[in-house]
Amino acid sequence: MTLSTSTLPAEESDATCVARAKSGDVGAYGVLVRRYQSAVCGIVSRMVANSDDVDDIVQEVFVVGYRCIGGFRGDSQFSTWIYRVAVNTAIKQMKRIKVRQAVSIDDPETGLSDILKSNDADGPERAVERSERDKALRKAVLSLPEKHRAVVVLHYFQDLTCEEVANVIGCSVGTVWSRLHYACKKLQGQMAGYEF
Fold it and tell me: What is the C-alpha to C-alpha distance for residues 45 and 107, in angstroms, rounded to an integer?
């Protein structure tokens, strides 16, 4: 197979880019990488505890994606497929390096600060309380099993619907709801003493 490096306009559809990438067009795959790199990075950074591993895992996601693009049938959107590759690659990497902790909640790009911010003006005491609460929440999320952590990250941090999460994870919507319910109950129990 000869690899082409044509350039595509940024407005080309995902389907067009995928078709060209399947025929060896590296430039088309590069467009897809640029489109989804930020989202994939967000997923991975919330799945693994060691921020030093994030860039390596994101790179691995897109390498695996390129190697496997020929097997992408188009039954779902490319975003769903690459998010599944991201979750599976992150879980595989965590198992390989025996990292059982995850989710970089204190990362400003997670959006958690927007969720947890109070409308009140923050004084020094409130800032300390919020910092303690954020640490406790991070620890609570880190304690979730991988399959529950994945649905929490995709649903609450990537804003995917339960149907979209089910497509990414490869399970039923009912399973997503069940895992979210379990995770939220566990998080509520661990965060009972904190004010949101």
Answer: 8
Two structure tokens written together for 57? 């895992």
* Start-to-end C-alpha separation, the chain: 56
Are the CB atoms for 83 and 43 separated by under 8 Å? yes
Query: 183-187: long-range contacts (C-beta < 8 A, 24 or more apart)?
Result: 183/144, 183/148, 183/149, 183/151, 183/152, 186/140, 186/143, 186/144, 186/148, 187/137, 187/140, 187/141, 187/144
Structure tokens at 2: 């000869």
**26-47 helix and 78-96 helix, angle to the nearest 10 degrees:** 50
- More reliable by pLDDT, 165 or 108: 165
Q: Determine the number of helices (DSSP H) and then strands (DSSP E) in the chain.
A: 9, 0
In whole angstroms, give the CA distance from residue 52 to residue 157. 20
Q: Is 48 helix (H, G, I), strand (E, B) or coil?
A: coil
Residue type for position 74: G
Per-residue pLDDT of 75-94, as tens digits, reads 889 999 999 999 999 888 87
Q: Which of 182, 188, 169 is nearest to 87 (CA)?
A: 169
Average pLDDT over residues 12-24: 92
